[in-house]
Write a structure and sequence with these properties.
By secondary structure, the chain is α/β, with parallel strands linked by helices. It has helices spanning about 70-75, 135-145, 170-175, 185-195, 220-240; strands at about 5-10, 20-25, 40-45, 45-55, 80-90, 100, 105-110, 150-155, 155-160, 180-185, 200-210. α3 links the parallel β9 and β10 (about 180-185).
């Protein structure tokens, strides 16, 4: 089976597999079932990259039905040590505007029906997610966006809801009161599973709209329009980042030893 260093998770259009050379699609089997779609593996500026559409290529899988365990397990099986994850979000703060990028570094989990661990039998895993994304990769990605002069926020707390519905006004105002900056439906358990797999993980959150705390309700047409406008920004960040991401033997973060002391 071909191997890859860097994984890209996102919807179709977020990262164009056609930019890869020597690319091919492969089916990956995991103990947790099939991932969302076939994985496209290829090369980009000398780096081996695996691209996986989170919601499948036709965007037919809603966020609460994504097989997150299979997706992360498939990338791990391919040898991926670093994941860049594009995610569409709503803004919970007036200062975070549609069209901007947020490099979320914390989350509040409001999901209900998702399995968030690989360890359900024989061993129990109490993984640390005090800092749920790789601190070094997070800073690296922010600096890339800064150099490209892409409007972005260095940090942010991501409120992850179950979906697929949007929030009520009361919920949205509560999340604001909790200190949430953005709201979405996919960061959890994706980031947690990446940590259990000892993979460096950094989300790139694209702000598509203001959440329902404002008088104007969330519109899917607005979301899709802004998402399309954001695509080029995310692609530019990823294209600049991928060639410079440290190789596995040069990772200096604690992600690669995250399981040490976590298993019972």
């Amino acid at each position: 089976m071909p191997q890859a260093e860097i994984g890209v998770i996102g919807g179709t259009g977020i990262y164009d597999p056609q930019l890869l050379t020597k690319s091919k699609k492969i089916a990956v089997n995991t103990p947790y079932g099939a991932p969302s779609d076939k994985v496209t593996i290829g090369e980009y500026e000398g780096r081996s990259v695996a691209v996986l559409p989170r919601h499948c290529a036709s965007h037919a899988i809603p966020p609460h039905k994504v097989n997150y365990r299979a997706n992360i397990a498939a990338l791990k099986k391919l040898g991926v040590h670093t994941i860049l994850a594009a995610t569409a979000v709503g803004s919970l703060q007036n200062t975070i505007k549609p069209g901007q990028i947020v490099f979320a570094d914390q989350f509040i989990d409001r999901t209900r029906n998702r399995i968030s661990t690989f360890y359900e039998k024989e061993k129990v895993c109490h993984i640390s997610v005090a800092d749920p994304v790789c601190p070094l990769l997070h800073e690296f990605m922010w600096q890339i966006a800064r150099k490209l002069k892409i409007p972005s926020h260095r940090t942010g707390t991501y409120v992850c809801i179950e979906g697929p519905r949007f929030s009520t006004k009361a919920e949205s105002r509560l999340f604001r009161a909790w200190g949430g900056h953005i709201i979405g439906m996919t960061l959890v358990p994706e980031a947690v599973l990446a940590r259990e797999a000892e993979i460096c993980y950094s989300p790139i959150a694209m702000v598509t709209d203001y959440d329902s705390f404002r008088d104007t309700p969330v519109s899917i047409d607005e979301v899709l329009k802004t998402m399309k406008e954001n695509d080029d920004k995310v692609k530019a960040i990823m294209n600049a980042a991928i060639p410079a991401i440290p190789t596995n033997d040069k990772r200096e973060c604690s992600c690669k030893t995250a399981l040490k002391g976590a298993l019972v």
